[in-house]
Specification:
Blueprint: E1 2-4, H1 6-19, E2 26-31, E3 39-44, E4 51-54, E5 60-64, H2 66-71, E6 75-81, E7 86-92
Parallel strand pairs: 1-6, 2-5
Antiparallel strand pairs: 2-3, 4-5, 6-7
C-alpha cells in the first residue's frame, strides 16, 4: 500500500494551482537515480498504467508510474512543516504507527 496523506494532497493541489497554468498536468513522483531515499517531483501528464492520486475535488494531483509504484509499496508520502525542515517526506508506513489521514 502507498498512502498520500491529506496534508500532502493539499500541498500538491496548491503547488499545481500556483505553478502550472495547464489543467492537464499533475505532479509526478520519481525516485532519484542512485539515491534510493530521495524523490523528484515534476509536472507531467498522465501516461497509460499510471497510479493516479486525486484530491477532494477529484482533480488528478499525483501520478506514479507502475515501476515506481511497486518501489513505494509500504510507504507514506506526507508534507511536514517544522523549524528544522519543511517539505514533502517519504516514510515507511510502519514508522507512522497509523498516525496519518488520507
Amino acid at each position: 500500500m502507498f498512502v498520500v496523506t491529506s496534508s500532502a494532497k493539499e500541498k500538491l493541489h496548491q503547488a499545481i494551482q500556483q505553478f502550472s497554468s495547464q489543467p492537464e498536468l499533475s505532479i509526478r513522483i520519481r525516485l532519484a537515480h542512485g539515491l534510493p531515499d530521495q524523490i523528484n517531483l515534476i509536472f507531467d501528464s498522465q501516461k497509460a498504467g499510471d497510479y493516479v492520486v486525486k484530491d477532494t475535488t477529484g482533480r488528478k494531483i499525483m501520478l506514479v508510474a507502475p515501476e515506481v509504484f511497486s518501489q513505494l509499496d509500504g510507504m507514506v508520502f506526507d508534507y511536514a512543516a517544522s523549524d528544522d525542515n519543511t517539505g514533502f517526506i517519504l516514510l515507511p508506513l510502519s514508522s507512522t504507527n497509523g498516525n496519518w489521514k488520507h
